[in-house]
Amino acid sequence: MNTNWRHFAEFVAVMSVVLSLIFVGFELRLSRAAAEVEMSTTLDSNNLELRTLITDNAGIWYRGCAGDELTPQEQVMFSSIFYASFYHYQMRWSIANAGVVDRPLEGPARRIAMNRYRYPGYEKEYQNHRIAIRNPLNGSVGPVNLYTLIESIYSELGETDIDMNVGFEYCGRGSANSYGT
Predict the structure, then answer these.
(1) Is the pLDDT of residue 1 over 70?
(2) Which of 74, 178, 162 is nearest to 121 (CA)?
(3) Shortest CA distance to 125 belongs to which of 83, 77, 73?
C-alpha cells in the first residue's frame, strides 16, 4: 500500500511539473504578444513625432534634403531632424533584428539607402553621421550589420529602376509605394 502512495505522489509531482511548464509557455506567449503591442505603439508614436518634427520645419527639411545652402541655425535643425529620422529607422531595424516584432530587416535599411540615393542633402548628412560615430563600417561602434546592409542596398540602387521624381515630402520618411517595402 505504501508503494502505491509513493507512485501516486511521484505521478502527481511529475504532472505538476508538466502543468507548470505548460503554464509558463502560455505566459511567455502572452508576454511576447504584450511586448509586440507595446513596441508597435512605441514605433507608431515615434513615427508620429518624427512626422510632426518634419512638418513643423518643412522648409528647412526640404531645402536640407535638396542639398541647398542653410544658415548655421537651419543646419542645426536639419541635422537634428536627420538624426531623429535615422534613429527612428535604426530603432525599427534593431527591434526586427532582435526578433521582438515580425518585420523584415531590410525595410529600414532600404529606406535609409533610398533617402541617401534620392536626396543629396540626406546623403551628405549621412556621411557626416558616419564620421561622427567613428565610421561604423570600419568596426568601432553602432549596429554594424545595419550599416553594412545600408551600404549593400545603396550600392545596388544605381542598377535598378528608381523613381527619382519622389517629392521631398518623403525625404526621411518614405512610403510603401515609393520605397518598395
Answers:
(1) no
(2) 74
(3) 83
